Amino acid sequence: MAHCISLEAEKILDKQFKVLDKGFIRLVDYMGTDERIVQSARVSYGKGTKTVREDAGLIDYLLRNKHTSPFEQVIFTFHIKLPIFVARQWIRHRTARLNEISGRYSVLKNEFYVPSADDLAFQSSDNKQGRADTAIPKELQEEILSSLQKQQGDAYEAYTALLDKNIARELALINLPLSTYTEWYWQIDLHNLFHFLKLRMDAHAQKEIRDYAEVLFEICKTVTPLACESFERHQLGGVNFSKDELEALQNLLAGKDTGLSEKDLNRLNEKLKTGRQL
Ligand SMILES: Cc1cc2nc3c(=O)[nH]c(=O)nc-3n(C[C@H](O)[C@H](O)[C@H](O)COP(=O)(O)OP(=O)(O)OC[C@H]3O[C@@H](n4cnc5c(N)ncnc54)[C@H](O)[C@@H]3O)c2cc1C
User: 36 catalytic, yes or no?
Assistant: First the structure.
């Protein structure tokens, strides 16, 4: 039969998976499973599913060789609740379809993201887009959290005061902060979801969007476990080497000097040690 159902995915349909303090991800629907990837890849031969082992091998081959179109045959629809500053990063992924709650139509809820004390961090000195590892003193944590909450409370009070004066909802909201929660339906195919996950599960991505990406990946595993395994092996857990780096590694294996400058060699070492794309 061409219609595909995953029993694991059926079990979690409509279940809310909590993310951050007030957000969630819910799998609303899906179309296709690992089986659909295999069906569509084999369409030219007129053959359907074989054994799980053969299917796994085919999926792994397709992913490893970037034969991506069969992965576009699997579609996910998620309902996601997320702070606006996360949504701004998320929306940069253009290869998806979405519909967001309208603050022009509805009154927005008094819901704002407040980081946990452990997630508060100083600015990193070596990564301009990152956080430092140094611990924040407890008194400072408390001061920051209460200041964030006060600003959010004040902003919401000002918002409702404008609504009480019958000011248009689309104007009343303009001073609400980026920590305000929004909601959307987000639909994406598996190929583009993997692209999103590769970028947003990476250590360079901001912690808050990474938390969402990690939950998305767990949900995705219930629909396409074999494809997720291959994705983890070849894309998530792998790194690319430049031509120079490849030559350096070949030289090393042949017992020769790498031929790299000290700076490039350090970067290659770091890449090999951490498994991160640098
Ligand atoms: C750690 C991190 C830091 C970032 N920092 C910044 C930042 O400081 N400022 C900022 O503005 N953005 C930033 N971004 C966003 C980033 O530049 C991308 O916009 C975002 O990751 C989406 O990637 P994408 O375009 O590949 O994805 P998608 O939009 O999903 O596109 C997928 C692929 O489709 C193709 N594609 C889609 N649309 C087009 C098009 N119109 N023309 C040609 N090809 C297209 C491309 O091959 C693309 O890779 C950051 C992203 C990350 C992960």
Answer: no
The whole-angstrom separation of Cα 217 and Cα 213 is: 6
* Residue 25 main-chain phi, psi, to 5 deg: -130, 135
156 contacts: CB under 8 Å, gap ≥ 6: 110, 112, 176
How far is it, in rounded angstroms, from Cα 19 to Cα 221? Answer: 17
Task: Provide mean pLDDT across the span 23-48.
Answer: 88
Instruction: Pick the catalytic residue from 200, 210, 233, 267.
Output: 200
Read off the pLDDT of residues 179-206 as tens digits, 9 standing for 90 and up. 999 999 999 999 999 999 999 999 889 9
Q: Is the pTM of this model over 0.85?
A: yes
Give the rounded percent of residues in the chain with a pLDDT score beyond 70.
Answer: 97
Look at residue 189 and give its three-state secondary structure: strand
Whether the CB-CB separation of 17 and 24 falls below 8 Å is answered with: yes
**Ligand 1 atom with minimal separation from the 200 CA:** 53
- DSSP code per residue over 63-81: HHTT--GGGGG-EEEEEEE
Contacts of 124 (CB under 8 A, 6+ apart): 130, 131, 132
Atom index in ligand 1 nearest the CA of residue 96 equals 30
What distance in angstroms lies between residue 90's CA and the mean position of ligand 1's atoms? 10
Distance 71 CA to ligand 1 centre (A): 20
Phi, psi of 140 (to 5 degrees): -70, -40
Q: Specify the pLDDT at position 1.
A: 59
Bridge partners, 207 (sequence order): none
